[in-house]
């Protein structure tokens, strides 16, 4: 007896739902952190994380397995962050968010809870440095894995790590000498 189209579709949706549930449990914290590295606002990062997993669910059948699920989800997240930061809404909202002292103090509080003073200093770096430093030191990825996730050369990852560390060193030295 052959399954009806509706039955096969229902089974496929159940399989996709189970896979999505697994992917969310496995990668949601990392995706949230990555989004936060980019937008530096916890609530926006949560929205981006949700949108990333919604896109994962919609495109699960199209995943070609050229890379790991993790790399695929990270690419989706990075693209969403870039799209959001390029949007007119984001550009209009940033000046008002910077003036709002409650938003700034909430961000600093989240950063202190998340990783202390060092994490907060890393978050003060430009995005290209904060992402590679976050992935390398906070998430424990190798330079080769980061290059794969960000689709950049491994030498670029090493260069950004070095420059980011130099900037951090200068920030801590300036703060310590005051």
Helix and strand arrangement:
Layout (H helix, E strand, L loop, with lengths): L4 H35 L2 H17 L10 H18 L1 H12 L1 H23 L3 H12 L4 H8 L3 H24 L1
List keywords for this structure.
single chain, 178 residues, mainly alpha, Rna Polymerase Sigma Factor, Chain: A, Arc Repressor Mutant, subunit A, 2 domains, 8 helices
Describe the protein in words.
With 178 residues, this protein is an all-alpha fold. It has 2 domains: 1-99, RNA polymerase sigma factor, region 2, helix turn helix motif (Rna Polymerase Sigma Factor, Chain: A, Orthogonal Bundle), CATH 1.10.1740.10; 115-178, Winged helix-like DNA-binding domain superfamily/Winged helix DNA-binding domain (Arc Repressor Mutant, subunit A). Helices cover 84% and strands 0% of the residues. The longest helix is centred in the N-terminal third of the chain and has 35 residues, at 5-39. Residues 95-113 have low confidence and may be disordered.
| Helix proportion | over 70%
CATH classification, class level of the largest domain: Mainly Alpha
Structure summary, number of beta strands: 0
Stretches with pLDDT under 50, minimum 5 residues: 95-113
> Which superfamily, in CATH terms, is the homologous superfamily of the largest domain?
RNA polymerase sigma factor, region 2, helix turn helix motif
H/I helix tally:
8
Order of SSEs: HHHHHHHH
* Overall tally of structural domains: 2
Arithmetic mean of pLDDT:
79
Return the CATH architecture of the largest domain.
Answer: Orthogonal Bundle
Specify the overall morphology. elongated
Kindly report the CATH topology of the largest domain: Rna Polymerase Sigma Factor, Chain: A
Rg is 19 Å
Which class of secondary structure composition applies to the elements?
A: mainly alpha
Strand content is under 5%
């Amino acid at each position: 007896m052959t399954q009806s189209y509706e039955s096969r579709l229902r089974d496929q949706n159940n399989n996709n739902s189970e896979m999505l549930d697994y992917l969310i449990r496995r990668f949601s914290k990392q995706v949230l952190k990555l989004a936060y590295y980019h937008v530096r606002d916890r609530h926006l990062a949560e929205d981006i994380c949700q949108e990333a997993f919604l896109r994962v669910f919609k495109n699960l059948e199209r995943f070609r397995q050229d890379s790991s699920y993790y790399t695929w989800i990270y690419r989706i997240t990075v693209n969403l962050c870039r799209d959001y930061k390029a949007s007119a809404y984001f550009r209009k909202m940033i000046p008002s968010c910077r003036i709002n002292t409650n938003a700034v103090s909430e961000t600093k509080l989240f950063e202190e809870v998340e990783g202390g003073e060092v994490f907060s200093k890393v978050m003060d770096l430009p995005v290209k440095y904060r992402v590679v430093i976050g992935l390398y030191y906070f998430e424990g990825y190798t330079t080769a894995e980061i290059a794969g996730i960000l689709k950049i050369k491994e030498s670029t990852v090493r260069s950004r790590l070095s420059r980011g560390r130099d900037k951090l060193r200068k920030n801590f030295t300036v703060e310590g000498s005051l």
